[in-house]
Amino acid sequence: MRIIIVANGNIDPNDVPNMNGAANVDTPASRLLHSGDLLIAADGGTRYCQTFGVIPQVVIGDFDSLDQDIMITLQAHGVTFIRYPVEKDYTDLELAIQYAVSRGASEIVVLGALGNRWDQTLANLLLPVLAEFTGVNIMLIDGSQEIRLVRSGQTLDLLGQPGDTVSLIPLAEDVNGITTQGLKYPLLGEALRFGSTRGISNVLLEVKATIYVDEGMLLCVLIHQV
């Protein structure tokens, strides 16, 4: 089950299609969104849904960023609202991901996770690391960029075009036993040290690359050419 979450960060309207599959440009979002996906808006993400001309099935958050007129419109469409207090332990996006996991999502695509506030951007980038999200494929999309996590013992397939940029960033500690295929600068069972920039700006040689991690957690960023 795939669930799309629209958060309240920065989204270029040109990057996102309507839910019938039409898009202004070819972007990761336009290739991934389908009309059958469950759509969740995290609080202020409802504004983007309105801009895109789509109705989310669920809206989650404390609603401090939700316009009252939009809420009335969505209520008329039978949208489910899940309200939390403003003083809470989790961000609206984390609550939305928790809900998506509870609904049985195997894949979660998040739009608008990144923005002008570095504290929230960094926190959102680290959300896939949480143990309770281990069995779910979480992808953050920002324009032409796709961000995913690879855990110990996992293999990630990256799909793009030759020349696309791929960056591998260790999280929390050194990542050992990294093996890649389809990249200009291969790793053959090697390590990337936490804090090192060695894994930045690799290049996709084919339409598909694979990345295997033996031990540790690796943030993978695929940047499509535009």
Q: Note poorly predicted spans.
A: 17-25
The shape is: elongated
Total number of beta strands: 13
Largest sheet: 13 strands, mixed
- Which series of helices and strands comes N to C? EHEHEHEHEHEEEEEEEE
Proportion in β-strands: 25-35%
The second-level CATH architecture of the largest domain is 3-Layer(aba) Sandwich
Q: How would you describe this structure in keywords?
A:
single chain; Jelly Rolls; 5 helices; 2 domains; 13-stranded mixed beta sheet
Structure description:
The protein is of the alpha/beta class and 226 residues long. The protein has two domains: 1-143, Thiamin pyrophosphokinase, catalytic domain (Rossmann fold), CATH 3.40.50.10240; 144-226, Sandwich (Jelly Rolls), CATH 2.60.120.320. The protein has helices at residues 28-32, 45-52, 68-76, 92-102, 118-126; strands at 2-6, 38-42, 58-61, 80-83, 107-111, 137-142, 145-150, 155-159, 165-181, 188-192, 202-203, 208-212, 215-223. Strands 1, 2, 3, 4, 5, 6, 7, 8, 9, 10, 11, 12 and 13 form a 13-stranded mixed β-sheet that branches. A hairpin with a 2-residue loop joins strand 6 and strand 7.
